[in-house]
Amino acid sequence: MTIYLPIAELSVNIFIILGMGAAVGFLSGMFGVGGGFLITPLLIFYNVPPAIAVATGANQVVASSISGAITHFRRGTIDLKLGTVLLVGGLFGATLGIWIFAALRALGQLDLVISLLYVVLLSTVGTLMLWESVNALRRARRNETVTLKRTGQHNWVHRLPFKMRFKKSKIYLSIVPVAALGFGVGVLTSIMGVGGGFIMVPAMIYLLRIPASVVVGTSLFQIIFVSTYSTVIQAVTNHSVDIVLAFILMLSGVVAAQYGVRVGQRLRAEQLRALLALMILAVGARLAIDLFLAPADLYSIARTGAFQ
After folding, report:
1. Per-residue CA distances from 271 to 214, 215, 244, 268 (Å)
2. 125: closest CA among 9, 37, 208?
3. What is the rounded CA–CA span in Å between residue 60 and residue 224?
4. How far apart are CA 211 and CA 151, in angstroms?
5. Signal sequence: where (predicted)?
6. What is the pLDDT of residue 305?
């Protein structure tokens, strides 16, 4: 069954789009990530223009994140105070990111920059996560005691000023690195259409030493509002949100996210990180290959700036 996407200006198979939304929604609930780092490349692979894929992908991230966050809220695994600090930084970052997005689009360099950012970011994050998770699995097989710093132990991050007590997470931490993390994720949300959970979750665990029990839910809480803000501003300023495509992705993503949460709770943390790392690396490799392969059409006609 084929439908026409008015903003993307192409016809697509509705069942393929439904499958994409369901797969990304499932992974969103399973890993505690928004899923934008998967849905945006998948849409690009399906010949959706990158500008549309980024803005519409952020819209799908909202739906999947809401579905997963509701489950975590019911279980009391969201630190609302910590999430609010992340959110404030994220909104400022998203505003800057939207400005950069519009500038790159006007210069005609948006597609290339998006692909390069994905390749660099996904390859780096995926490699680091895979290395850490493989080492953790090896230690578990040998029944070795893992000597990790416990929550509350100090590193350079904990010596920064403007500290605040987060009772839910049971930590006393400066808001500077928390807001900075939110700011960086906000920029990525606007430029790349990602929720940023694949960066935020590891950073909260390994850098900020936030207990893993509240990391996933708090990450989804921040992703909801930053992605919503980014989507609305993209629609108003750049006219790059395809509502038909967004609705189909949201429909399947919301349902699948609930099942993802249930499956994720049955796997060990290091297993989840290893699986997520492999997926991140696979997407990065696929984008890298496309950058070096000669396109099927050597010439194209495209408009810069906002859609008329």
Report:
1. 18, 17, 36, 5
2. 37
3. 10
4. 7
5. none
6. 44
Distance (Å, whole) CA 266 – CA 226: 29
**For the chain, which ranges sit under pLDDT 70?**
28-36, 58, 60, 63-64, 67, 144-161, 194-195, 197-198, 238, 264-265, 267-273, 293-308
The pLDDT value given to residue 307: 40
Say how far residue 192 (Cα) sits from the centre of its chain: 9
Position 157 scores a pLDDT of 62
Q: Enter the tokens of residue 239.
A: 């006219």
Q: How far apart are CA 82 and CA 90, in angstroms?
A: 12
Buried b (16+ CB within 10 A) or exposed e, 100-115: ebbebbeeeebbebbb
Q: Identify which of 84, 89, 31, 35 has the alpha carbon closest to the alpha carbon of residue 60.
A: 35
CA distance 132 to 260: 23
Q: How far apart are CA 48 and CA 179, in angstroms?
A: 33
Measured CA to CA, the distance from residue 131 to residue 118 in angstroms comes to 19
Answer yes or no: are the C-beta atoms of 178 and 208 closer than 8 Å.
yes
Alpha carbons 153 and 104: distance in angstroms, whole number: 42
DSSP H or E run through 172: strand 171-174
- For residues 284 and 123, the answer to whether their CB atoms sit within 8 Å is yes
Hey, how many other C-beta atoms are within 10 angstroms of the C-beta on 144? 10
Q: Which residues contact 289 (CB under 8 A, 6 or more apart)?
A: none
Return d(Cα 54, Cα 32) in angstroms, integer. 20
Q: What is the dihedral of CA 220, 226, 227, 228, to 10 degrees?
A: 110
